[in-house]
Structure prediction request, 260 residues.
Amino acid sequence: MCKVIAIANQKGGVGKTTTTSNLGIGLAKQGKRVLLIDADAQGSLTASLGIQEPDRLEITLATIMASIINDEEIKPEYGILRHEEGVDFMPGNIELSGLETSLVNVMSRETVLRTYIEQQKDRYDYILIDCMPSLGMITINAFTSADSILIPVQAAYLPVKGLEQLIKTIGKVKRQINPKLEIEGILLTMVDNRTNYARDISNLLIENYGSRVRIFENSIPMSVRAAEISAEGVSIYKHDPNGKVASAYQSLTEEVLGNE
Ligand SMILES: Nc1ncnc2c1ncn2[C@@H]1O[C@H](COP(=O)(O)OP(=O)(O)OP(=O)(O)O)[C@@H](O)[C@H]1O
Prediction:
């Protein structure tokens, strides 16, 4: 059985891409077959997997989704790239912005990505989708395709208000389009253990959401080593194998596997 997890938060820079790649590679290290999908027009997941200029790629998620809109048949493996650390990925780039605008007039506009993902499901154990920092139509497509949503929250600001809107949108998609949709959990990222602030945010999350949403036991520490990896094109396991961020992502991977 394949599980599809969307990594989403409409707030930018909270660790969505870093979590998608390192959770994905963590799952691959546990022997799982993993496909990562870059559903963000910034192409940062694609870049972090070693593609230096995502905007120059010819086949990306945008071209695939356009083919589906045009009812063209595509082979499941078409356009999928392989990363040296054992994950496959469907790259994304700036063309997703144009596609987002044109989706408005498309029949079944919420389910285009789902059509693509359905044909990948027998090839993978996990499919992770790195979402845009917005709740636009591509993100709704990701929610429509997913079994669950993992929400990274940066431990450096008060996240309560934005999260409420995100959880509401997830609830709406669940009621109206995708009844199986669940929240995988809220993941605290970029935690600076030298301050009490992270603990305050953690307590605030538990107080406000703990009864409705799972909060991951593991959080991801702030580390300059994590910030370096997007330029390296490798995971934190390769860049800093004995560091605290590698160990945190490994524990998160085990927690996600334990959710099954
Ligand atoms: N644990 C961490 N410690 C320090 N820096 C981090 C950590 N995780 C991610 N970063 C850095 O923070 C920035 C934002 O991270 P990332 O790109 O993963 O967030 P995002 O939510 O995907 O961003 P966007 O919304 O723009 O897509 C990046 O420069 C990344 O390298």
User: Anything to note?
Assistant: Strands lie at 3-7, 34-39, 81-82, 88-90, 126-131, 148-154, 182-189. The chain has a mean pLDDT of 94. The chain has one domain: 3-258. The longest strand covers residues 182-189.
